[in-house]
Amino acid sequence: MAKTSVPLVGFLLFSLLVATAQAGVEYMKYKDPRQPISKRIRDLTKRMNLDEKIGQMVQIDRQVATAAVMRDYKIGSILSGGGSIPRLQATPQEWINMVNGFQNGSLSTRLGIPMIYGIDAVHGHNNVYNATIFPHNVGLGATRDPDLVKRIGSATALEVRATGISYVFAPCIAVCRDPRWGRCYESYSEDPNIVRGMTDIIDGLQGEIPRGSPKGAPYVGGKDKVVACAKHFVGDGGTTKGINENDTVIDRHGLLSIHMPGYNAAIYKGVGTVMASYSSWNGVKMHANRELVTDFLKGALRFRGFVISDWQALDRMAYPVHANYTYSVLTAIQAGLDMIMVPYNYTEFIDTLIGLVTNNFIPMSRIDDAVRRILRVKFTLGLFENPMADESFVDQLGHQANRDLAREAVRKSLVLLKNGKIADEPMLPLPKNSSKILVAGSHADNLGNQCGGWTINWQGGDGNNLTAGTTILKGISEAVDPSTEIVYQENPDISYVKTNNFSYGIVVVGEASYAETAGDNLNLTIPLQGQNTIQSVCANIKCVVVLISGRPLVMMPHLELVDALVAAWLPGSEGQGVADVLFGDYGFSGKLPRTWFKTVEQLPMNVGDPNYDPLYPFGYGLTTQPVGHTS
Ligand code: GLC
């Protein structure tokens, strides 16, 4: 090779830099996708002033966001809180237009750092009208099928991308240890090993991290994938009596062996973000727990994505809410929180944090660590190269293939707890060619009830106008032979049940929709109307009860009366999955992901506990063979 080649290359490169400079276009390394992410982060962080750095640490709800706010305050992230939508039944295109509008504001800032938009897609893209609504996590835990939840993650990522969004606050990897907790249905199981297995959903949401990747670095595998969020760190499912946002009183071994395994698995999978829990561990708020957030999560577990707060969590660190706000900001940032879900009073948060930094209460090194983590996730996501929505996914929302997957998940989530009053006379599967079937109950023809909380609205809803889907009743009507008469009565009286020659009854009852603290419940009885329907039907004709609930409920008083009992959890939009199994197109295969107690006085009671005396134990579930199908 000619001796003069190296100097020549150097000369040419120098000439290029000079020419670029003369043209007035500075070469910005952070904008060069050929550069390693670490160099892009270093280059960009060097260029940022304090306002720009702190702006990146702020997440606001779309309700207070505008392009001007994004530009003027250099806000790093926007979210849709539960039910925060552009308008009722907004189309994917309207979502895209909204997200792109905010993004243009961010791109018009001095350094043009794109914002990241987050949303709770916790059982499908559940805020969005016509999205596929998958079974809530408790039902997925009953499937014992990590590959299924991985496929659900992939489908969810596509439907989220259909609306121009690229970040989801999922999966919830809580280990619910007391069903009195209003969020128990967001937990896959009381067993940490099942929860750990279900973190495969992250492989679906983000893409499967290549073997040999360094532990802890965030990973996103393409434009059809999204950034995930393991939540809520840590011990959210272990609070006293299941009181939401309360105190998890347990020794370190118990915390690490029960509530931590899911996080380690998620970090090995390259999860991009972790959300801190409102709850406390032995009296210390998780949002103020530096030892667990920084020393353990970021240190021992080597997590290199960013830690986000929960909604208004800093306001809730003190009592009354928002008291000692400055001290809450100080302790949360010093604990290791990187992005704060403010979500409304962003000017107060920004001013408070600027004051804490400029008065040397918080070192710039802590701010730089937070900013580096946020930028690492944004560079990994490809947000600098592709900040605007990719409209090629717009037809993925509610796609039939995703609905078919949800229907498969419903089938596999059903747990058969009782099948006939006499051992060798099983009631299920039901014959499709019966003369007349009574379908009864508040949850048979009610899409809102069968989807549960976090559906269109934060608390979910009631009735069939909430979103698109198939009710359990419709699924039953479509499953039986045309000669079979289906009669639906939500709450039939005894004489009606007795005098109409029904072959048998299908009673579909359960809990109304709820989310978070609204779901905290100390008695866990089936709502009275449901109890009355069970009594009026099952005392007079053969019946199968299909229970729609986020958790086990008190069944003892009704058990003698019912011929068959199915736990269907919160199945979501594809109610046909229930009929598929009731009528034998598929067999029952689900297993209890949680202990089914006899009385609430036994709680908390989990598999492995001493004096374990359940009605149905963890892992219980009867099976049936499909009729006329090869297995
Ligand atoms: C809620 C929940 C959290 C959710 C967040 C944003 O209060 O605790 O799971 O991701 O706020 O909606």
Write the layout of secondary structure elements.
Elements: H1 5-22, H2 37-47, H3 50-56, E1 58-61, H4 67-73, E2 77-80, H5 92-107, E3 116-119, H6 137-143, H7 146-161, E4 167-168, H8 192-198, H9 201-206, E5 229-233, E6 247-248, H10 252-259, H11 261-268, E7 273-276, E8 280-281, E9 284-285, H12 290-300, E10 306-308, H13 325-335, E11 340-341, H14 346-358, H15 364-381, H16 400-413, E12 415-419, E13 436-440, H17 447-451, H18 472-479, E14 485-489, H19 494-498, E15 504-510, H20 528-538, E16 543-548, H21 556-559, E17 564-569, H22 576-582
Parallel strand pairs: 1-2, 1-11, 2-3, 3-4, 5-7, 6-8, 7-10, 13-14, 13-15, 15-16, 16-17
Antiparallel strand pairs: 8-9, 12-17
The protein binds alpha-D-glucopyranose.
What's the architecture of the largest domain in CATH terms? Alpha-Beta Barrel
Distinct helical segment count: 22
The fold-level CATH name of the largest domain is TIM Barrel
- Give the class-level CATH name of the largest domain: Alpha Beta
Low-confidence stretches: none
Q: Largest sheet at a glance?
A: 6 strands, mixed
Helix content: 25-40%
Could you give the count of β-strands?
17
Query: If you compute it from the alpha carbons, what radius of gyration comes out, rounded to the nearest whole angstrom?
Result: 26 Å
What class do helices, strands and sheet pairing give? alpha/beta
Number of domains: 2
The ligands bound in this entry are: alpha-D-glucopyranose
Q: Averaging pLDDT over every residue, what do you get?
A: 96
